[in-house]
Amino acid sequence: MTAEGKVSEKRKRKRSWREVFRAFGRAHRKASVQMESSAPLLKHLDELRIRIFKIFLALIITTGISFAFSQKIIEYLASPIGGISELVSIELTENIAIFMKVSLLGGFVLGMPVIVYQIMAFVLPGLKRNERAWLFVMVPFATLLFAGGVAFTWFVMLPSAIPFLTNFMGITTQVRPENYFSFITRIMFWIGICFEMPLIIMFLAKLKIVTAKQLVSGWRYAIVLMAFVAAAVTPTVDPVNMGLVMAPLLGLYIISIALAAIVGRSRND
Question: What CA–CA distance (Å, rounded) separates 196 from 179?
Fold first, then answer.
C-alpha cells in the first residue's frame, strides 16, 4: 500500500470515529430532551407510589388494631340474629375466614381518614393555601358520612331486614357464619359508600364538572338512579327496605345540591 493510501485510510478511520461520537452526542441530547419532557410524569408516578405505600402501611396498622378486637366485633355483629350460638358452621376453615374478613373490614373503616386524605392529596396537588382548608374539611366529613351509613344500616335497616329474611314463609333458617357476616359486612360497606355522595358531588363541583343548577334540573334521573342503587344494595327488593335506603339518599342528594351551590358561589367570588 502506498503512502497516500495509508494517509487516506487513517483519515477515513478518524472520520468514522467522529461520526460515531457525533451520533452518540445526538442520541444523548435526544435522550436528555425526552427525560426532561417526561420528568413531570415520573414525578407524579413517584408521588403516587408514595401515597399508595402510605395507604398500605395505614391499612396494616389499622387491621392489626382491628385484629385484636375481632372476637368482640363478631359477637356484636351477631347480635341481630340472636348471637353466635344461632350460627351453624359446616366447613373447617369457615370460622377463621370470617375472623379475617371482619378484621380487614374493621381495618378499612379505621383507616378511612388516611385513605381519603392520601387520595385527595394526590388528586388535588395544585390547591392554594386558602383552598387547602377544603382538604382538611373533607377528610373528617368523609369519615363521618361513611360511619353514618354504617350506623344507618346497623340501627335502621338490619333490624327490619334480618327478621324478614329468616322468617319468610315460616320456614326455619339455619344461617351459616360465612353467609351471615358476608351479607351484613357487604351491605354496611356499600351503604357507607353511598353515604359519601355529598362529598363526591362537592368534589365534582370543585372541579367544575357539575353545578347545583344541573343537579336540580336532573332530579328525576337522580331518583331513578337511587332506585337502582337501593335495589342493588338492599338484601331484598321489597318496597319497605328499598324505601329505607332511598329516603336517606334523597336527603343526601339535597345536601349535595346545597354543597355544590356553596362551592360554586365561593369559586365565583
Answer: 26
CA neighbor of 99 nearest in space, from 145, 66, 147, 62? 66
Q: What is the pTM of this model?
A: 0.65
Residue 96 confidence (pLDDT): 86
Residue with cell 335506603: 245
Residue range 114-145, pLDDT digits in tens: 887 787 777 766 666 666 666 677 777 877 88
Q: With beta carbons less than 8 A apart as the criterion, state whether 212 and 264 touch.
A: yes
Indicate whether 60 pLDDT > 60: yes
Distance CA(222)–CA(255), nearest Å, equals 13
Spatial distance between the Cα atoms of 60 and 150, rounded to a whole number of angstroms: 22
Buried b (16+ CB within 10 A) or exposed e, 79-107: ebbeebeebeeeeeebeeebbebbbbbbb
